[in-house]
Transcriptional regulator, GntR family (Rhizobium mesoamericanum STM3625), 229 residues
Amino acid sequence: MYTELPIETIAESSYRRIRGDIIFGRLTPGQKLKLDGLKVTYETSVSTLREILNRLTSEGLVVAEGQRGFEVAGVSVADLREIAALRLLLEEHALEQSFEQGDVEWEAQLVSAHYKLACMEKVMASGDTSQTENWKRYDWEFHQALIAACGSRLLMETHAAVFDKYLRYQMVALSYRGGVAEQEHKQLLDAALHRDSKTAKEILQRHIQGGVEHALGKGPLSSTRKPAR
């Protein structure tokens, strides 16, 4: 028998759906978020939608336009670079702590996360883009696994929020770097298993910078990028 879910559960589910649709590009940068349309799509009340959109506004994924309503936050080169720099700062610190404290269970989870990512990277390399969201989800899981033993839940949560914003840019640009990124992921795994945080940080810097430059060369950001001097 169907039992109606509590309003908190419905609201949280709708929040996750809308947030996911923004991150994965189904709701595009600058798109107007009309409450009447969202009410039908996400099967929730206008009052709940307002709460959700205000919550997403506080996260920087939605922009409130006063009396004119809401829209998906735009994208810019400067914002991408700032997000990438913050991600690197957080991930380097968490990575060093994780390498120091990780145990055999952490190693096993990391190897498992990399295996799933590597399998999906092979699918992407074949030209099949139907699994793009799973590819990026496994990418997210691998980088979270790298820092999972850092000992700070707040650091993990903050990194995850920043990573999601970085991910949105990759989805906007459909940024798949092929074998280069695949090799960097394998190198990160090897460095982690050898507890070599110095090497891992160097690889991570190349990995994130390479992702930024690749994203800037494709999609809507490529036309706004200033030529190098």
